[in-house]
Specification:
Number of strands: 10
Radius of gyration: 21 Å
Strand content: 5-15%
CATH class of the largest domain: Alpha Beta
CATH superfamily of the largest domain: Glycogen Phosphorylase B
Helix content: 40-55%
Number of domains: 2
Number of helices: 13
Order of helices and strands: HEHEHEHEHEHEHEHEHEHEHHH
Distance between the termini: 43 Å
CATH architecture of the largest domain: 3-Layer(aba) Sandwich
CATH topology of the largest domain: Rossmann fold
């Protein structure tokens, strides 16, 4: 821990602005900015501070940062709901603004090549349900698997692909959860992958089952890929998906299952309309170049405010 702090200190000495992401890094950045007399920008990408879904230390640091927030030069929340929630718990800063997460829409783009799955995994040409997320309580894999179990009571013409860090055969707890709901025959655990753009574009549905999010990149990427989405209503997911997919309450497996079934029953015109509108939404609001432009305009303003204070006349 000490050596890591020293490394951060040495790196930040060379900078004009310290920019941090998430609560623990924000707190560390605050300490470094005071020691080094540097400008500081916080990033917030979280919305759920429920004690059942977060470590006590995380909640403590988040609340501590709320008390320090007025002493920060700027705060960036990744979405409107994230901004609203943090202001409600005491984050106060005149430079609290929203800059969304961006995606490279040349990288994530439509390409309905179902054979990407059939050729690699030796499966039938049936609907593909894709979930991408690390092994974390907030991703609520229990909710996902229970919803799929309920779905199998109505239909069994689909496969489930799970992708993410520690989402592989070595995860005994996850394997046991899958066995408990008897989904081993249709579930594939792919772990961390380099071909997520291809997997997203070739999937029929992207599912997000989380109990807490900020503005999840994976939803932006799925929409950019022209893949219809089913998501829980956490963080800014509703703002992202809107009328382009299905949005259900968190921790409600029955509602999630019904929404997945509804989306699987879209006819080709319904699916195409939602897919096109979803990608258009991303092109208009979440392109990485637009996000970069917002940061490029923010940084000089922060530096100028520093110079104005140093030279008031």
């Amino acid at each position: 821990m000490g050596s890591a702090f020293v490394q951060c200190y040495q790196l930040c000495r060379k900078s004009d602005i310290i920019q941090t992401w998430m609560y623990h890094a924000n707190f560390l950045g605050y300490i470094l900015s005071k020691l080094l007399k540097k400008k500081l920008i916080w990033g917030i990408h979280h919305s759920n501070l429920n004690k059942h879904d977060n470590k006590r230390r995380t909640i403590f640091i988040a609340k501590l940062c709320a008390k320090l927030s007025k002493h920060v030069d700027a705060i960036i929340s990744c979405g409107p709901k994230v901004k609203e929630i943090h202001e409600a718990i005491g984050y106060k800063n005149k430079q609290h603004r929203m800059i969304v997460n961006g995606v490279n829409t040349d990288f994530y783009k439509p390409s309905k090549k179902r054979q990407y799955y059939t050729e690699r995994f030796n499966i039938l040409n049936q609907p593909i349900l894709l979930h991408v997320g690390r092994w974390d309580p907030l991703k609520d894999y229990g909710n996902l698997l229970e919803s799929i179990k309920l779905l199998t009571q109505k239909r069994q013409d689909f496969y489930v692909f799970l992708v993410g860090y520690e989402i592989d055969g070595s995860n005994r707890e996850l394997r046991q959860m899958i066995e408990n709901v008897q989904l081993e025959h249709i579930t594939f655990l792919l772990g961390s992958r380099e071909d997520i753009p291809q997997l997203m574009a070739a999937a029929d549905l992207f599912i997000l089952s989380s109990s807490g999010e900020g503005l999840p990149n994976v939803l932006v990427e799925a929409l950019a890929s022209g893949t219809c989405c089913v998501t829980t209503n956490v963080g800014d997911c509703e703002y992202l998906v809107g009328d382009y997919g299905e949005v259900v309450p968190a921790k409600d497996a029955a509602a999630l299952s019904m929404a997945i079934n509804k989306a699987l029953n879209y006819d080709s015109k319904q699916y195409e309309k939602r897919a096109n509108l979803g990608r258009a939404h991303v092109l208009a609001n979440f392109q990485i170049k637009h996000v970069v432009e917002q940061y490029q305009s923010l940084y000089p303003a922060i530096i100028d405010s520093k110079n104005m204070k140093a030279n008031p006349h």
